[in-house]
Specification:
about 725 residues, 3 domains, ten-stranded mixed sheet, eight-stranded mixed sheet, about 35% helix, glycosyltransferase activity, Nucl-diP-sugar_transferase
Length: about 725
């Protein structure tokens, strides 16, 4: 018998591999050298070695191949942390919560990376302290108050190469069972959209170990994840259903929803419920609600953290931004309409009797997966592969387990439901008195009390946005906008721009017939000098720039170098030689003025002169500054206003070219030609008609805005510029 057994081992060595063969030789050696008296010990050794062999082979096979040979795909978690402060080198409570949250995300597994949207230095600090799997992205749009735009966050997330994208509140902690939900959803054969509402917990007495691999109690002792989850389930509270909604989706073949996502301001309400509503009604993707496994929590207090900090949130600004989101939710989509019936199709992801499953509560059906638990993350769907055809609860479970599952299903209505998430306040907010000129100056002006002013009507809406986007790319944030009509005012408010309304502006501004020389043009230009003078009197320097001026670089450092009692203005002279300050060659669409007595007095004279003239502002501007016929010209590029002793400097056209200088707009590559010349700006003037002006700028490539998506063009962005009607 022993001989036969040894022969079997020897034969097995030829097919079992080196590891198994070595173990068998060792076993044979022990059998030959132990005496008959040690038979019991011999058997014990054999059983022990056999057990070690089985475990070793199982681990080896799992490590080499993995079940089904599959590797879980990459997950990118996107978040927009709020800037936080420091005291004594430590982040405040907000910073501590955000850091703990991000560390909990990273602890889910090596396949998880994190992208933080932000511009503040505290966000860079956060990322630098959390390793290479955390990066900061500032290349999305932010409002003038620094709030990121939700539609840009979603677009940037969809542009990611990861298999699964997640957008989460920056203070929300993720527990390991969240990754189980993603793994289960990933195995489905449909494109999906997963949500998880986040309950709050008043006391969270746990912290993450420095290695980021396990959780600790306040005394530093390790806590099992099961104990932590048990504490969470006992302490959690459900309040606002959609305030801290987590959303996730797979990189499938269909969009999240039909239509365009409006420019919601992130964290200011409505955007989560609006998106969920549109995803459900579009019915492109399977909607999964993973709230019931309590994998996301918001800690109100960190008991081990004794520094609270001082949060500087302007409630007035927050209320205004909430009003913007409320208006957007009403104007776009069907969020304010009833449409809950289609929600009956969505699935819950729950854990009941130790097992995870998808549940359609309306149909009382459970869709099960194999191996969906903490120990085995590789899932096998039933061979049918159709989630609606998976077998019914009664065929899976014994009668006593059936009762437990039925109880779990009945409990699904006790928490926040997607239907409740739609029941936000639907009374439209009024946005007519958002910001005054004075309040915007305090917010937007730079340290030198300088602002960039644009004056625009609804007819130049897209060009205004391209101008704004260009300034954002150049990190110029000290701009404000004067709205000439109600339409552009409402549009600018909804786009998060620093806009104020000029109540004295002309009311009959034509959409397409407000070009140079028109009656509309003459009325609009007179607004500019009046608003500039008003700002100068408030103590702020002003760079007035028409929105058809393309900025290659920030010209402010050069313009500010001219000092006091000097007004610098662009020349409209097209001849390449000769004086550039001849009569009517000052361009009042681009000039820099300081808040000093000579400049203010001269600008008051311009306003008075223009008010009695039947011409546009530009002749009045020149006649006051350089005298009628250029009588106060000093040389070829300077004038002197005699009453105020203000010097008027005409800017170098190689740096500040107008639309007719050197034929730059006719160049095949306008950008390269201007770069070679050293242009700081290029004015898109000397062309008649709004349509022709817009067409020339878009086709030249000097365009920074996607009107279809309502966002600035970015390096990751695929623009759609076909929506322009030239």
């Amino acid at each position: 018998m022993l001989v036969k057994r040894r022969a079997t081992y020897a034969g097995g060595c030829r097919s079992a591999g080196r590891l198994q063969c070595t173990s068998r030789v060792l076993s044979s050696f022990i059998f030959r050298h132990l005496s008959y008296k040690d038979a019991a010990l011999r058997i014990g050794y054999f059983v022990f070695l056999l057990g070690v062999l089985v475990i070793t082979l199982a681990l080896y096979s799992a490590l080499q191949n993995g079940e089904d040979g599959e590797v879980f795909p990459s997950v990118v978690i996107f978040a927009a942390p709020r800037p936080f402060s420091f005291r004594g080198g430590r982040p405040d409570l907000l910073g501590a919560r955000e850091m703990l949250a991000v560390r909990s995300w990273l602890a889910l597994g090596p396949e998880v990376t994190v992208v933080l949207f932000g511009q503040d230095s505290s966000i860079l600090y956060l990322a630098s302290n959390l390793g290479s799997r955390v990066t900061v992205a500032s290349n999305i749009d932010f409002s003038f108050l620094g709030t990121p735009f939700f539609h840009c966050m979603v677009a940037r997330s969809q542009n990611s190469s990861s298999a699964i994208s997640v957008i989460i509140d920056p203070e929300t902690i993720l527990l390991p069972n969240f990754l189980i939900a993603l793994r289960c959803a990933y195995k489905l054969d449909r494109d999906w959209f997963l949500i998880s509402r986040t309950p709050s917990i008043s006391n969270f007495p746990f912290l993450m170990h420095n290695t980021g691999k396990h959780w600790l109690k306040e005394d530093g002792s390790r806590v099992r994840i099961e104990k932590l989850q048990e504490h969470v389930k006992q302490e959690l509270r459900w309040s606002n259903c959609s305030e801290k909604l987590l959303i996730a989706w797979n990189a499938g073949e269909v969009p999240l929803h039909a239509g365009i996502l409006p420019p919601f301001l992130y964290g200011r309400g409505f955007h989560n419920s609006w998106l969920l509503h549109e995803v459900v009604l579009s019915d492109f993707r399977l909607v999964i609600d993973a709230s019931y496994i309590a994998s996301t929590i918001y800690p109100e207090n960190l008991t081990y953290y004794d520094f609270w900090g001082n949060f500087s949130i302007d409630n007035g600004h927050v209320r205004w931004e909430e009003g913007v989101n409320q208006r957007l939710a009403a104007l776009y989509g069907s969020h304010f309409l009833e449409g809950y019936d289609k929600l009956r199709k969505h699935l819950y992801f729950i854990k009941c009797s130790g097992r995870y499953a998808f549940v359609n509560a309306a149909k009382k059906v459970v869709f099960s997966t194999e191996g969906c638990n903490e120990q085995s993350f590789v899932l096998k769907l039933l061979r049918d592969q159709q989630y609606e055809m998976l077998f019914f609860l009664k065929r899976l479970l014994h009668w006593w387990i059936q009762k437990k599952w039925i109880h779990c299903i009945l409990d699904l209505g006790n928490l926040c439901s997607p239907k409740q998430a739609f029941k936000e306040n639907k009374q439209l907010a009024l946005l007519d008195t958002a910001f005054t000129l004075e309040s915007l100056l305090k917010i937007s002006a730079d340290n030198d009390k300088t602002v960039v002013l644009a004056v625009a009507g609804h007819n130049y809406r897209d060009m205004l946005m391209s101008w704004v986007c260009r300034l954002r790319h150049l990190h110029v944030s000290n701009f404000i906008i004067c709205a000439l009509d109600a339409e552009i005012y409402q549009f600018a408010l909804l786009m998060g721009l620093p806009v104020f309304r000029d109540q004295l502006a002309p009311s009959n501004i034509s959409f397409n017939q407000c070009h140079f020389g028109s009656e509309c043009f003459r009325k609009v230009t007179k607004v500019k000098s009046r608003i500039v003078t008003q700002i100068l009197k408030l103590g702020y320097n002003v760079l007035l720039s028409d929105v058809d001026v393309y900025w290659f670089n920030n010209p402010l450092p050069l313009l500010q170098s001219f000092g006091p009692s000097v007004l610098v203005v662009q020349s409209d002279e097209y001849n390449e030689t000769g004086p550039i300050n001849l009569p009517r060659r000052s361009n009042s669409g681009f000039y820099f003025s300081r808040s000093d007595p000579p400049t203010i007095s001269a600008m008051e004279k311009v306003v008075k002169h223009a008010s009695t003239s039947s011409l546009s502002e530009q002749p009045s501007f020149y006649d006051v500054m350089c005298g009628e016929g250029g009588s106060t010209r000093v040389d070829d590029n300077h004038c002197l206003e005699p009453d105020t002793n203000l010097t008027i400097h005409f800017l170098d056209r190689n740096l500040f070219p107008n639309g007719a200088y050197k034929g730059l707009w006719e160049e095949e590559d306008v950008r390269s030609a201007c770069k070679k010349q050293g242009c700081l700006i290029l004015h898109n003037n000397w062309i008649n008609g709004r349509e022709r002006k817009l067409e020339r700028q878009v086709l030249s490539g000097l365009w920074e805005y996607d009107p279809a998506m309502r966002m600035c063009l970015q390096s990751w962005h695929q623009p759609n510029l076909t929506s322009h009607s030239f």
